[in-house]
Specification:
Elements (H helix, E strand, L loop, with lengths): L2 H16 L3 H10 L5 H18 L11 H19 L1 H5 L7 H12 L15 H16 L1 H8 L7 H8 L13 H26 L3 H12 L17 H14 L3 H10 L3 H4 L2 H23 L5 H16 L16 H11 L12 H19 L8 E2 L2 E2 L2 H27 L4 H12 L18 H15 L3 H4 L4 H4 L2
Antiparallel strand pairs: 1-2
Helix pairs in contact: 1-3, 1-4, 2-7, 4-6, 4-9, 6-7, 6-21, 7-11, 8-10, 10-11, 10-12, 10-13, 12-16, 15-16, 15-17, 16-17, 18-19, 19-20, 19-21, 20-21
């Protein structure tokens, strides 16, 4: 482990992230909301901390190893969550404890969207903007941004990229150079954000709300500037705009890149994961719409747009709501929560286990059934006509076992802390899947649960955002052996 290289990168990244405290200062000045000071304090404290880390080792130029990349990513998300809470700690409105401020910050940066804050409609505009900005920056990953705009790092950008980006096939780069890959991802991300903001504005949102909700939509985050979330606007048109961009943000960004470069939709139509992604969401949406109508929860048209919106929002792990879905009748809340375990596609801003992993688990299960019938048969697992290596399948099974084990362990800890079983198991599912709203006492917000549960859920959010291995590898003795 190269401590100097790790310290240097952490210092530089903290100095970069300190810049993110400046846009809320401008928002506060523009709206004259009196909430400027917390952001100024956060800017200087984060900048100085980064500078103090960077200066002693700024001349160190050795190549970063893969192990160092895992440490940098895990430590940075931890430090970033803490530094992101500074404005919320010092803010007079809302008044948050340190635990609540860190929870809100980590929830934003991991694009989970679980909140401890109520009364959003009365908060200063700068605070509302800051929460949305946290999700937008966390959506594609701060470290990918750093690699894109700081090629002068010059020390193992690929190691950071591989440790940060989600999915079982992350070694496939869009372009030969890692900095160009990161830039391509960010151009697509920025372009979708601009288009989403313009579409919201054209559909009837104010300029501020359009920008704020475009941040959390493209990031698959789910934070809103209103307590009623998307239901506040009471507009099916706005909801359908959200559905379109949630679907796009939940798809693999490599497909967007290929479609843009080739000016063709063929990359989408030829991708097995994308087709399964659409089929799963369509299946859940049909069931949701039909059940809402048959139970009389909504009338005909209302059942359709509410059902489609909520199925896509929960299925992509965005977490926007138009109604209190956790109070919907029958099995629907459980169905929607379980859909979040599938989540978005690999290489998207979505959470969950990712569609490609679920598809591989299904295909592997079918292969084992075939082997029972034909013990001597050689049955390969194929995706899109290509035979996958056994190592990829083994990695998916390893991921699944760790995912389930971690989920059960954390849910039991929450239950032991005093939460009822429905709240405990749904809260961990919602946070590990980076979804946000759960069931029971966390259906609308997390402010009423105990502090122990909040810290466990913070760990669950980071674990889900970095997809298990990046965090758990640091807890193994083998990682620290020379």
């Amino acid at each position: 482990m190269q401590r100097a290289a790790i310290q240097r990168i952490l210092g530089m990244l903290l100095m970069i992230i300190s810049i993110s405290m400046l846009p809320p200062v401008l928002v506060s000045w523009w709206y004259d909301d009196g909430a400027m000071v917390p952001f100024i304090l956060a800017f200087f404290s984060t900048l100085v901390t980064g500078l103090l880390l960077w200066l002693p080792v700024h001349r160190f130029r050795k190549e970063l190893r893969l192990r160092d990349g895992f440490i940098v990513v895990a430590m940075f998300w931890l430090v970033l969550g803490l530094s992101g809470s500074i404005p919320l700690i010092f803010s007079a409105q809302p008044e948050l404890s340190i635990t609540d401020a860190v929870f809100e910050s980590v929830s934003g940066l991991t694009t989970t969207g679980a909140t401890v804050i109520t009364g959003l409609d009365g908060l200063p505009k700068s605070i509302l903007y800051y929460r949305q900005q946290l999700q937008w920056l966390g959506g594609m990953g701060i470290i990918v941004l750093a690699v894109a705009i700081l090629p002068m790092l010059g020390i193992g950008g690929m190691q950071l990229y591989r440790a940060e980006t989600p999915g079982p096939m992350k070694d496939n780069k869009l372009t030969p150079r890692i900095t160009e890959t990161a830039k391509a991802l960010w151009y697509i991300y920025l372009g979708l954000t601009v288009l989403c903001a313009l579409a919201y504005w054209a559909a009837g949102m104010s300029g501020f709300d359009a920008l704020a909700h475009s941040f959390s939509t493209v990031a698959i985050g789910g934070f809103s500037t209103h307590d009623g979330s998307m239901g506040h606007f009471n507009s099916p048109l706005i909801e359908m705009v959200a559905v379109v961009f949630m679907l796009l943000a939940g798809a693999n960004f490599s497909l967007h890149f290929l479609a843009w470069r080739n000016m063709s939709i063929k990359p989408y139509m030829g991708d097995a994961e994308f087709k399964v992604y659409l089929k799963v969401l369509a299946f859940v949406a049909v069931i949701t719409c039909g059940y809402l109508y048959l139970t009389g929860t909504f009338s005909g048209y209302d059942s359709i747009h509410n059902g489609i919106f909520q199925a896509v929002s929960i299925g992509t792990t965005t977490g926007f709501t138009t109604a209190e879905y956790h109070n919907w009748p029958g099995f629907l809340p459980a169905l929607l929560l379980l859909t979040s375990f599938v989540g978005g596609c690999a290489g998207s801003t979505g959470g969950g286990m990712k569609v490609i992993r679920v598809l591989l688990l299904f295909k592997q299960g079918m292969r084992e059934v075939t082997r029972l019938i034909h013990p001597s048969a050689q049955v390969p697992v194929k995706i899109g006509g290509k035979v996958l290596e056994e190592r990829v399948i083994d990695a998916v099974w390893g991921f699944f076992s760790l995912y389930v084990g971690s989920y059960i362990a954390m849910a039991l800890i929450l239950a032991a802390s005093g939460l009822d079983l429905l709240t405990a198991f749904s809260a961990v599912a919602a946070c590990m899947n980076n979804l946000g709203p759960g069931l029971g006492d966390v259906g609308s917000q997390y402010g009423e649960i105990n502090d122990v549960a909040k810290w466990v859920l913070c760990f669950a959010m980071i674990l889900g955002r970095l997809e298990i291995f990046t965090v758990l590898v640091l807890l193994t003795p083998a990682f620290w052996r020379r």
